[in-house]
Amino acid sequence: ADMFYNCTSLKSINISVPVTTIASYAFSYCRSLTSITLHNKVDSIYSYAFYYCTSLIHLIIPDSVSEIGRHVFSACKGLESINISKNLDVINSYLFEGCTGLTFIKIPESVESIMEYAFINCKGLISVEFSGNRLNYIGKAAFIDCESLKNITIPRGVTSITEWTFYNCIGLTKAIIPSTVTTIENDAFYN
After folding, report:
1. Rounded to an integer, what distance in angstroms lies between the CA atom of residue 150 and that of residue 53?
2. What ranges in 25-177 are assigned the alpha helix state H?
3. pLDDT tens by residue, the chain, 191 residues
4. Start-to-end Cα distance in the chain
């Protein structure tokens, strides 16, 4: 499963054969990896697959991907932009943890849930754009420590803002909360 684990000299990956799954830890700690091309037959990327690929700058996740595990892009500090599959329904826990170079993310209309701590410590994240209104759940501390986040517009499908969702988002100057939100939990916007 971890066949390229810690290949510190690996600079690019082009998966052109019809691989359907990227296994857990497959490319973890490939610190020199700057480029990844995924075949449009990939449907699953398992936990920690690209963990700590600190030189990765941009990634396009093909629309064939419907499942991405936890921590897949955690500690990818150089990641500046990512295009997420339009068939993904869950942004998993800790998916972008510590992606400090990420400044913008567009959440596709297909996404129904953003799990806990999904964007924790994305200190450079300035803007999050939500497409459509299918999103109905934003987990605990999903955007905790996103210090550069300027404004947020919560989609109409969301009914609750969980605890610590925007905790320590010190740059947040504007939050638009729809009338569908009936509960804002403790410390949701603390600091």
Report:
1. 27
2. none
3. 678 999 999 999 998 888 999 999 999 999 999 999 998 999 999 999 999 999 999 999 999 999 999 999 999 999 999 999 999 999 999 999 999 999 999 999 999 999 999 999 999 999 999 998 899 999 999 999 999 999 999 999 999 999 999 999 999 999 999 999 999 999 999 98
4. 41
Closest CA to 126 of 109, 141, 143: 143
What does the block give as tokens for 41?
A: 């037959």
How long, in residues, is the chain? 191
- In whole angstroms, what is the distance from residue 173 CA to residue 148 CA? 10
Neighbours of 71 (CB within 10 A): 24
Residue 166 region, left (φ>0) first, then alpha (ψ -120 to 50), else beta?
alpha
Element (H, E) at 14: strand 12-15
Q: Taking a C-beta distance cutoff of 8 angstroms, is the pair 47, 73 a contact?
A: no
Location of structure tokens 């690209």: 50
Q: Which residue has the tokens 């480029």?
A: 35
| Residue 125 in tokens | 């994240």
